[in-house]
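thought: fold this chain, then report.
action: predict
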Amino acid sequence: QVKLVESGGASVQAGGTLSLSCAYTLYTKSTICMAWFRQAPGREREGVALIDIDGSTSYADSVKDRFVISKDNAENVLYLHMNSLKPDDAAMYYCAADFWCEDGLNSEFNYWGQGTQVTVSS
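observation:
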């Protein structure tokens, strides 16, 4: 059982930066795989970034040089630091978690936050 609550979504200018947070609460396990997903109107949901149980990270090609996923295990917060934002980055961003993610961003995630909206103006 995992509870996830995202925050930090905002409207920013293209080229700007923004950091999203996902506070998580673990009830049954101390280690989890976590990821950020996003979905824009008319688009498929896409995996953005993932941090595995061993701390390794992976990114979608579209964001790998601009976004950074990190996790503070002491404070139980997942972060997504977004740099050089583009209009195509505008979407509802969701954090997700599960106890393992053998298939990376293609894994099935059982726990999801409510989402936080990111808007990018040009």
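thought: worth noting. The radius of gyration is 13 Å.
final: tokens above.
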